[in-house]
C-alpha cells in the first residue's frame, strides 16, 4: 500500500445533509492522510443502474490500490449481503444489489467476496457509515481481505450488458449533465465500420462522427465519447432537451450505402 | 495537535460561486497539509435551525482535535459576536447567532468563548473568509485559544430542545435528502418502551420499527435513525413527498394496548 | 515547488457525473499528495463569462505556485488552442476561448502561452482529462513551462472590461447564490466618492452603504462586496428575486446633492 491511499466515494446521499461527511469521518478517523475523492453523490435515490455506470467510470480511471466505497443501498437493514470486489488491482465495497454490474460487464473477470466482518454496534439504517466505511478503512490500511470476507461467485447483477460483437442494436443507458446520451455500444463494435449510420428511437442521427465540430451548432451527432461508448449528442446543445430520447431507447447501426 | 489537522466546513454558500473555495484558500495558505472536509454548503440561506442540526452531526462523528468552521451569517457586518465553542475536545468557530444550539442541546455542557481577535483588514460582508477562517487556521496550527478569545456564558440559543425524559410529545426538526423526517425525540426516550405507537400531525404511523424492511414498500414507519433520533420514513419512498408533513409538526407517542 | 502542491478545478461539469473525478484521477495519478480544491463545477454549460469571473476569484485568493485547471470547453475537439497563463506566480491552464478574460482585466499584465504538448492518445471530447489535466500535473510537479508551451500574445478575450477610471456607468456581470448582483465597477472607482447615489436599470438603489445592516431588512442597497466590486443586494433577501435585474443591466453612479 502506498503511504497515501486513495478512497473514492459514490453515493445517492446528495450533498445536502451530513451523510457523506459521516463516511469521511470514519475514513479519516483511521487514515488521517487519505486522499478522499468524491465521484458523485447525485445518483438518484436508489437508482442502481445509474450508480453502477458511475462506479465503473471510477474504476476505469483510478490507479491500482484505489479503494472505492459505493453506497446506494435501498435494502439497508435487510439481509442483503455486502460485496467486496477486486478489479484492475482496485477494491470496491458496496451492497450486493447490482451496483457492481457495469464494472463486471466492462472489466471481466472480476473477483467477488462477501464482507463477513461486522462491527460490535451498528445502526439499522446506515451501514455505509457503520459497516462499509470501517471495512474500506481497514482495507486501505493494508488489512488482508481474507480476514474480512469470503469468496463468492454469485454477486447480484442487473439486466444490462454491452452490445455483443456483431450486433446491430443497442440502447441508451445514461444521460449526462450536458444532455449527452451514453449507449451500451462499445467503441470497438463500431471502430472498424466507418460507413455506419446511426438511428436512435427510429430517428436518423447520421454517420459516426469524430467530434462535436464535425456538425453545425444545434445538430445531433453520434460519436465515440470519452467513456469509449457510442454517444448521441447535440453540438453546443443538449440531446436530452432536443431529441426526445430516454434511457432505454433503442439504437440501430446500419451500413450506409456506398458514397 | 496531530500533523494533519482536520477542518470541516458547514455553510449556506452553495457550491455555485467561489465562496467556499475562498475559505479553503485561507486555510490552505497556513496549513498546506490540512484535511478539509465539506459537511454541507446547502444550508438554505440564513437557515440557522438547519445549519445548527447539520453542525451537531459533524461534531458527533469527527475525532478529537477537529476544527469545525460554520458560516451561516445573515448578520455579517453588524455587531453580532463570533463564537468559539469547545465540545468533545473539538473546536467550533461560528457566528454567535444560534448556530451552536443543537450542539449545546445534545452534548452539554459545552464551553463557549467570544473571538476577540480581528485582522488588520476585513471586508464588511465576508467575515467567514476574513475573520473566522484565519482564526480556524490559527487554532488548527495549535495557537492557544486564550490568545484569540475570552470566555462567555451567554451564547445565543434558538428555541429548540430535545424532548424531555418522560415526555409523550415532540416535533419534526429536519427533513433529509431522502425525505426522512428527523424529530427532536432522542433514542433513549423510546428505547425502553417497545409498545409505543407513533402519530405524526395526527396521523397514525404505527409502532416503533427497527428498519425499513419491517414494513412493505411504500408504507410509512417510525424508527430510530442513524442520528439516534426518532425518524418518520417511507420504505423505498419519501415521507416528505407522501405524508404531507413539515418541519414543526407534532409527534405523539402513545402506549399501545396489550397485544 | 512546495511538497504539497495546490491544484484548483473550475468547470461546467456539474457534480452529477464522473467527469470531475476523472480529472482528479489524472492529477492524483502523478501527485498523490496534491491538495485538490474545487472552485466550482456549476458554471452553466459553456458559459465563458461566468466561468471567467469565477476563475479570477480563485486566482485572487490562492497562494503563489497554485495551479488552476479550468475546463469550460464547448470547442473541444476543434482547433481551438489550449492556454497556459501566469499571474501572481500562479499558473492557469484552460482552453483559449475567453475563460482567461476577467483574470486579464483585473490582474494585468498576465503572461500567456500556448500548450504545445500533446499526449500520444486522446479522446476527441474530453481534453480536460486527456490533455489539460496531465499538463497541470506536469507543471505542479515542477516541469518547466518551456518544455510544454510557447509564448503567445493574442489570447482570446471576451467583450467585458472593468469600468474605467472616471466613468459614471457600469453594468451587472454576475449573480451569486444569495441573489447578489456583482458589477464591473471596482472599489477604487467609488471609494473616494462618498456622496454617490446608485441606480440599477433605471431604479434608485440609494447611496453607497458599508454593510447589509445599514438598511432595514428587505431593502435594496449598493455596497462594496467581498470581491472588491460594487454589488447590488437586498438585506436578508435576494436582489435577484426582488429587483427584477439581470446580468447586463446598466448601473449609473451619480453625485448626490449636498445633504
In short:
Chain A has 259 residues and is an alpha+beta fold.
Characterization of the model:
3 copies of one chain form a homotrimer. Chain A has 259 residues and is of the alpha+beta class. In chain A, 21% of the residues lie in helices and 31% in strands. Chain A contains 6 helices and 14 strands. Chain A has helices at 19-30, 48-61, 101-106, 127-140, 187-190, 239-242; strands spanning 6-11, 35-40, 67-71, 82-87, 90-95, 111-115, 149-152, 169-175, 181-186, 196-200, 203-209, 220-224, 229-234, 250-255. In chain A, the strands form 2 sheets. Chain A has a 7-stranded mixed beta sheet with strand order 2-1-3-5-4-6-7, sandwiched between helices. In chain A, strands 8-9-13-12-11-10-14 form a 7-stranded mixed barrel. In chain A, helix 1 links the parallel strand 1 (6-11) and strand 2 (35-40). The first copy, chain A, is elongated. The termini of chain A are far apart.
Amino acid at each position: 500500500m502506498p503511504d497515501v491511499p486513495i478512497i473514492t466515494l459514490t453515493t445517492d446521499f446528495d450533498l445536502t445533509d451530513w451523510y457523506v461527511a459521516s463516511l469521511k469521518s470514519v475514513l479519516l478517523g483511521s487514515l488521517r492522510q487519505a486522499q478522499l475523492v468524491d465521484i458523485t453523490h447525485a445518483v438518484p435515490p436508489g437508482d442502481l443502474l445509474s450508480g453502477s455506470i458511475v462506479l465503473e467510470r471510477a474504476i476505469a480511471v483510478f490507479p491500482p490500490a484505489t479503494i472505492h466505497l459505493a453506497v446506494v443501498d435501498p435494502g439497508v437493514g435487510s439481509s442483503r449481503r455486502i460485496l467486496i470486489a477486486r478489479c484492475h488491482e482496485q477494491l470496491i465495497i458496496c451492497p450486493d444489489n447490482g451496483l457492481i454490474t457495469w464494472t463486471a460487464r466492462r472489466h471481466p473477470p472480476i473477483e467477488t467476496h462477501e464482507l463477513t466482518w461486522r462491527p460490535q454496534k451498528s445502526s439499522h439504517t446506515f451501514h455505509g457509515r457503520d459497516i462499509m466505511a470501517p471495512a474500506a478503512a481497514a482495507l486501505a490500511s493494508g488489512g488482508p481481505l481474507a480476514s474480512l470476507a469470503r469468496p463468492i461467485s454469485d454477486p447480484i447483477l442487473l439486466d444490462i450488458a454491452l452490445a455483443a460483437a456483431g450486433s446491430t442494436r443497442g440502447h441508451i443507458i445514461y444521460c449526462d449533465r450536458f444532455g449527452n446520451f451514453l449507449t451500451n455500444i462499445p467503441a470497438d463494435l463500431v471502430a472498424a465500420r466507418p460507413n455506419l449510420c446511426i438511428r436512435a428511437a427510429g430517428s436518423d442521427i447520421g454517420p459516426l462522427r469524430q467530434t462535436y465540430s464535425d456538425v453545425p451548432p444545434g445538430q445531433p451527432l453520434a460519436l465515440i465519447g470519452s467513456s469509449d461508448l457510442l454517444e448521441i449528442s447535440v453540438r453546443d446543445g443538449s440531446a436530452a432537451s432536443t431529441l426526445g430520447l430516454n434511457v432505454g431507447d433503442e439504437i440501430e447501426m446500419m451500413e450506409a450505402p456506398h458514397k
